[in-house]
Design a protein that fits this description.
The protein is an all-alpha fold and 135 residues long. It is 59% helix and 3% strand. A hairpin with an 8-residue loop joins strand 1 and strand 2. Helix 1 runs antiparallel to helix 2 and helix 2 crosses helix 4. The longest helix is centred in the C-terminal third of the chain and has 31 residues. The N and C termini lie far apart (76 Å). The relative contact order is 0.19. Keywords: Membrane, Transmembrane, Transmembrane helix.
Length: 135
């Protein structure tokens, strides 16, 4: 009777506070990181070519933040938005699942906050480097 039943016992690779996205989601974040970096470099070049005031370089913070958020998330295999929402995804892009355990959700929120702080730190440092650049 049970011999004909197929059971899929493979669980998602979700690890509370450590890993909440699979390969498709990781790839998406890598693309966001590259896009943010390319946009930042193009914008920086434009500021230099047009002899914009040095203070205008602070406008690089937002695209650098986009790049750093994508990069940190892809390296940690953890989506900060999913962490704050209490969700995860190891399947099709956009097919999210809810985290049931409140302790796991709390661990995810801590990790998401850490990623946000790391990303902001990277973006601030990169912006300051652009600001002090002698060109």
């Amino acid at each position: 009777m049970f011999g004909s039943m197929k059971m899929n016992l493979k669980m998602p690779d979700y690890i509370p506070g450590a890993c909440n996205i699979g390969t498709g989601e990781i790839r998406r974040r890598q693309l966001v990181a590259v896009a943010g970096l390319v946009f930042s470099l193009v914008m920086f070049s434009g500021l230099i070519v047009t002899n914009a005031p040095r203070g205008a370089r602070f406008s690089l913070f937002v695209p650098l933040l986009v790049a750093s958020v994508g990069w940190v998330q892809s390296r940690k295999k953890f989506c900060l938005a999913y962490g704050f929402m209490g969700t995860f995804n190891f399947g099709k892009l956009g097919a999210i699942s809810k985290v049931a355990d409140p302790v796991d959700r709390a661990a995810d929120r801590r990790m998401a906050l850490g990623i946000l702080l790391q990303s902001c730190t990277v973006a601030v440092l990169a912006t300051l480097m652009a600001w002090v650049a002698p060109v």
